[in-house]
UniProtKB/TrEMBL annotation:
Belongs to the ParD antitoxin family. This is Antitoxin ParD. It comes from the Bacteria. Antitoxin component of a type II toxin-antitoxin (TA) system. Neutralizes the effect of toxin ParE. Keywords: Toxin-antitoxin system. It comes from Salmonella enterica. InterPro entries: ParD, ParD_sf, Ribbon_hlx_hlx. The lineage of its organism: Bacteria, Pseudomonadati, Pseudomonadota, Gammaproteobacteria, Enterobacterales. CDD domains: RHH_NikR_HicB-like.
């Protein structure tokens, strides 16, 4: 459901929006804003995707995987937590 929202863009952005409408690229101010927000959403999604790609590359280049046992790992974590608490 569409709802009205009032936004103060300032003179520069208002003039830019009006120029896009006058050029025929867009019919209304709302179209310009919707397209702008869609592009922003895409840019943010691409940024998150790139961060995941970077993490994947880091993981792949970190060397051969080693086996680990969940119980042994949790025991070490708990022991480390206790040691930190004792040093306070």
């Amino acid at each position: 459901m569409a709802r009205t929202m009032t936004v103060d863009l300032g003179d520069e952005l208002r003039e830019f929006i009006e120029s896009l409408i006058e050029s025929g690229d867009y019919r209304t101010q709302s179209e310009v804003i919707r397209e702008s927000l869609r592009l922003l959403r895409e840019k943010q999604a691409e940024s998150r995707l790139q961060a995941l790609r970077d993490l994947l590359a880091e993981g792949l280049s970190s060397g051969e995987p080693v086996e680990w046992e969940k119980d042994a790992f949790l025991k070490k974590v708990k022991a480390g937590t206790r040691a930190v608490g004792e040093n306070r």
